[in-house]
Amino acid sequence: MHSESPIKRRPTRKIWVGNVPVGGDAPIAVQSMTNTETCDVDATVAQIERLKNAGADIVRVSVPSMEAAEAFGKIKQRVSLPLVADIHFDYQIALRVAELGVDCLRINPGNIGREDRVRAVVEAARDRGIPIRIGVNAGSLEKDLQKKYGEPTPEALVESALRHVEHLDRLNFPDFKVSVKASDVFMAVAAYRLLADKIEQPLHLGITEAGGLRSGTVKSSVGLGMLLAEGIGDTIRISLAADPVEEIKVGFDILKSLRLRSRGINFIACPSCSRQNFDVVKTMNELEGRLDDLLVPMDVAVIGCVVNGPGEAKEAHIGLTGGSPNNLIYIDGKPAQKLSNDNLVDELEQLIRRKAAEKVETDAALILRS
């Protein structure tokens, strides 16, 4: 039940990736990338469906060959989420997926080849209303920039990005977004800050090759949190060496923590100590697993004792405060009932689900009245 985010977002041009707006006043989109073999259509479709169920707004699919392009077309027919095709070097692949209904092309105009090839891709995108994503990475900078700067730097990343932007500007194509990713947090943050002052287009945020689930989550949260708090960023991808579904979960957790998007339960839980009157860690682990399917935005406080419990519970939709001999449940900030430790998780889950259903009905009624 917190107030709106105090963050003032950077004004940007709005583009559309399928039916998902990116930039302008649109919510910050959360996306991931498949790690299945693209030519394995069934496996790729299954993973995209899992990403959709986790809340993904957009999914990127690597298309390294013409065979993969044909598979992409079959995948596109079977899913509802907007798909971005990740393409390098071969402009004919870009032309083919454009014909097959791609929602966004991830290319770098500079590595597509001659000017006529870039023009062909841009015209195909223009004719079909397809936006382009320019993606610059510290690990694949142009050789002359590596020589000029000696090593990847924020300035090198931005210079590379602006080269690609210039290609699109010459062709009068403004519907694109840009990323300047690095695995080093400070480099990525500095590059995005520099680029944000130079173009009006939306920025796709990410810390590339961030690491495994734990280390990558921390690194991404620090880097993206710094930028998002400054109002920079219109769509995000958390790059983890883990199940892509985890990328979506972490992305939404970052946005929820900054009050930039609400999806699912926002848990407030104490780290637990000897004052706790129930097993907070066990309770939280069970609740998170059981309630993963709830999409309605809700604050749920799970606090083990009466030191901070009542204060946190009063600010949540549902609050549990540890007490002896019984724990106290708050609903919408008011004491409602007591629960013993017997079947605590089962009863708390039922209360949360009941409150979530009520909230859905209330929100729907408010929308109808407005």
TrEMBL record:
Cofactor remark from the record: Binds 1 [4Fe-4S] cluster.
Cofactor: [4Fe-4S] cluster
Residues covered by the IspG TIM-barrel domain: 12-251
Keyword set, alphabetical order: 4Fe-4S, Iron, Iron-sulfur, Isoprene biosynthesis, Metal-binding, Oxidoreductase
Binding of [4Fe-4S] cluster, residues: C270, C273, C305, E312
Pathway, per record: Isoprenoid biosynthesis; isopentenyl diphosphate biosynthesis via DXP pathway; isopentenyl diphosphate from 1-deoxy-D-xylulose 5-phosphate: step 5/6
Catalysed conversion reaction: (2E)-4-hydroxy-3-methylbut-2-enyl diphosphate + oxidized [flavodoxin] + H2O + 2 H(+) = 2-C-methyl-D-erythritol 2,4-cyclic diphosphate + reduced [flavodoxin]
GO biological process, one term: terpenoid biosynthetic process
Pfam families assigned to the protein according to its UniProt record, in alphabetical order: GcpE, GcpE_C
EC number: 1.17.7.3
Entries under InterPro entries matching the protein: Dihydropteroate_synth-like_sf, IspG_bac, IspG_bac-typ, IspG_C, IspG_TIM, NO2/SO3_Rdtase_4Fe4S_sf
SUPFAM superfamilies associated with the record: Dihydropteroate synthetase-like, Nitrite and sulphite reductase 4Fe-4S domain-like
Molecular function, one GO term: 4-hydroxy-3-methylbut-2-enyl-diphosphate synthase activity (flavodoxin)
Domain of life of the source: Bacteria
Residue ranges of every copy of the IspG C-terminal domain listed in the record: 266-353
Leader sequence segment: none
Similarity section: Belongs to the IspG family.
PANTHER family reported in the protein's UniProt record: 4-HYDROXY-3-METHYLBUT-2-EN-1-YL DIPHOSPHATE SYNTHASE, 4-HYDROXY-3-METHYLBUT-2-EN-1-YL DIPHOSPHATE SYNTHASE (FERREDOXIN), CHLOROPLASTIC
Function as written in the Swiss-Prot or TrEMBL entry: Converts 2C-methyl-D-erythritol 2,4-cyclodiphosphate (ME-2,4cPP) into 1-hydroxy-2-methyl-2-(E)-butenyl 4-diphosphate.
Name of this chain's protein: 4-hydroxy-3-methylbut-2-en-1-yl diphosphate synthase (flavodoxin)
Organism (species): Stutzerimonas zhaodongensis
Lineage: Bacteria, Pseudomonadati, Pseudomonadota, Gammaproteobacteria, Pseudomonadales
